Amino acid sequence: SHPALIRYLQDRCIDIEVAKSVCKEVQYEVNNKCYFAIGFPNCGGGYELRNPFFKGCIAPKDISHFYANEPKKICFLFEGFIDFLSFMTLRRIQSPRYNGLSNQDYLILNSVTNIHKAAKRLSRYDSVQCFLDNDDAGRNVYLQLSKELGKSVTDASTLYNGYKDLNEYLCAESKHSERAEIKKSKGIKL
User: Fold this and answer.
1) Of 38, 129, 159, 189, which residue is most buried, by most CB within 10 angstroms?
2) CA distance 179 to 190
3) CA angle 168, 18, 43 (to 5 degrees)
4) Is 166:78 a contact under the CB 8 Å cutoff?
5) What distance in Å separates the CA atoms of residue 52 and residue 189, rounded to the nearest whole number?
6) How far apart (Å, rounded) are the C-alpha atoms in residues 117 and 43?
């Protein structure tokens, strides 16, 4: 893996193994210059791309949908794949052997403008847990889904209230854990 991409994930506190389980390293060319990015696949055959200098996609722009091994009645919804990878990282921290892709359905919008593409798929679930950003765009998506799907839609962003999004929460938790480990290793005595 390209060192800059690994640093990009580490800066966002994303577990590298989690990222490798769903992402690919993508090499692309613009104006005869070669670039590398983390590529996250979408349902249309395109990729969402991220690197330290670029946020974009290889068309077509579409949602990403992962299905569990057995049909589920609940789907977890995310705005972007970095928040999805953050969720998966948090799950892995809590249970290192947990493979969430086979146990849970996930839908990633890859842009709030893709909500219309997601609504029909989400209507098949008894419950939709929304892990959206704590901003106007995230709240608008939640309200739109609530209006379309009714009481089956739950706002899970309250779990990381006070943070912009799930990734910011993950990084804050990681830093908190690091400080606790440093104090513990230094043997601070009371």
Assistant:
1) 38
2) 17
3) 90
4) yes
5) 41
6) 10
Sorted by sequence, the CB contacts under 8 Å of residue 184 that are 6+ apart come out as: none
Residues counted in the chain: 190
- Alpha helix segments (H runs only) across 67-165: 81-94, 100-103, 115-122, 136-149
**Secondary structure of 6-65 as H, E, C letters:** HHHHHHCCCCHHHHHHHCEEEEEEECCEEEEEEEEECCCCCEEEEECCEEEEECCCCCEE
Q: Which residues pair with 49 in a beta bridge?
A: 39, 56
Structure-block tokens of residue 137:
């765009």
Q: Which residues in the chain land under pLDDT 70? A: 98-100, 177-190
Return the number of other C-beta atoms located less than 10 Å from residue 74's C-beta.
Answer: 14
Residue 101 in contact with residue 133, Cβ under 8 Å? no
| Residues paired with 55 in a beta bridge | 50
Cα 41 to chain center, whole Å? 12
Q: What residues contact residue 170 under an 8 Å CB cut-off, 6+ apart?
A: 12, 13, 14, 86, 89, 90
Residue 188 confidence (pLDDT): 45
